Amino acid sequence: MTGYFEPLTVGKIGLPNRLVMGPMTRSRTPAGVVTELTARYYTQRAGAGLIISEATGISEIAQGYADSPGLYTDEQVRAWRTVTDAVHAAGGRMFAQLVHCGRIGHPSLYADGGLPVAPSAIGSGEQMFTPEGMVDRPVPRALTLDEIASTVGDFVTAARNAVDAGFDGVELHAANGFLLHQFLADGTNQRTDAYGGTIANRIRFVVEVVGAVSDAIGPERVGLRVSPGITFNGMAGAESDTAELYPALAQALSAVPLAYLHVNELITRDTTRLIRAAWNGPLLLCAHPTAESFPSTPAIGRPALEEGLADALVLAELWLANPDLVERVRTDGPYNTADRATFYGGDQRGYTDYPTLAD
């Protein structure tokens, strides 16, 4: 049986344990530039087998939330370097999660005040928080073929920037209702060209992004995150063929020796098993096999790890509240409780002030 504390290799990186810190948006990067506080937050959690950063935009039009970071300007790259240097000095390993939010955007986030983009002109029906209050996210405009190609290029540029910023690799965000996911789902992708319709067409954009980024920085530095059946960001009912879609994507990517595939499971254990059967590389799992398994814990994930369904467990909320989570798992707790009121925005409170066992 595989345990939490056995080493694992993803790509060419050795992980000392199989407890991964999942990506969590914290909305504490004014103007998209991380700060010294960001460095302190991640460095406190350097004991993770791997840290996956919060979702980080690949371009201005990729942004979907205020005060979320980017990797598309020199200033952003320099700022992230202070984070990765500190994490590495503390013995950690860190991938940057790269995202294009697609229709989960708003004109107020862009200098030109234009519409967000998506595979099709279908709105999310969601709202966004602004300093002036909640505002409706507009119906996006559909990307042209030339814009699809240039977006692939934006992912490549951001991946190269991530390497320059000192990250050990990148995770491409094809989950949670963002652009790559919007192309996968038939409810948000109603294109009639080579990027829409059949499963083979709907996975095309994701496969192209993965291939281009792998060519640019090496597949051993690239992971991909998916979230079969998620309802977040207006995706309820958006996938009519989840059980066929994700194994097909995994099979299409199996020829590429990626660092890992990251599955955010949402009461979709049967689909997780189908993905595992189609995927021949490391599989990272944020385990939610039942409606009672949110947020995920080591105990919830243990069966998947022991049976080989997952190679490592991705945890989020527990890492947020327990910077020394590895040690707490070794001692079977106790665990701090996360303060949900401080999840998004603010200062060090609920960010870098959670006590460790030593405290």
Can you offer a commentary on this structure?
- The protein is an alpha/beta fold and 359 residues long.
- The chain has a single domain, classed as Aldolase class I (TIM Barrel), CATH 3.20.20.
- It is 31% helix and 16% strand.
- The protein has helices at residues 36-44, 74-89, 145-164, 179-184, 199-202, 204-217, 242-253, 269-278, 298-306, 317-321, 325-330, and strands at 8-10, 13-15, 19-21, 50-52, 56-57, 94-99, 117-118, 127-130, 133-136, 141-142, 169-174, 222-226, 260-264, 283-286, 312-315.
- Strands 3-4-6-11-12-13-14-15 form an 8-stranded parallel beta barrel, surrounded by 4 helices.
- Helix 7 runs parallel beside helix 8.
- The two termini are 33 Å apart.
Short key terms for the protein model shown above:
359 residues, alpha/beta, TIM Barrel, 8-stranded parallel beta barrel, two-stranded antiparallel ribbon, 11 helices, globular, Alkene reductase
Principal-axes shape call: globular
Q: How many individual β-strands?
A: 15
Euclidean distance between termini CA atoms? 33 Å
Name the helicity range: 25-40%
Content-based structural category: alpha/beta
Q: Per CATH, which architecture?
A: Alpha-Beta Barrel
As laid out across the biggest beta sheet, the strand order is: 3-4-6-11-12-13-14-15
CATH class descriptor name: Alpha Beta
Strand content: 15-25%
Radius of gyration: 19 Å
The mean pLDDT is: 97
Give, in order, the helices and strands. Answer: EEEHEEHEEEEEHEHHHEHEHEHEHH
- CATH topology, what is it called? TIM Barrel
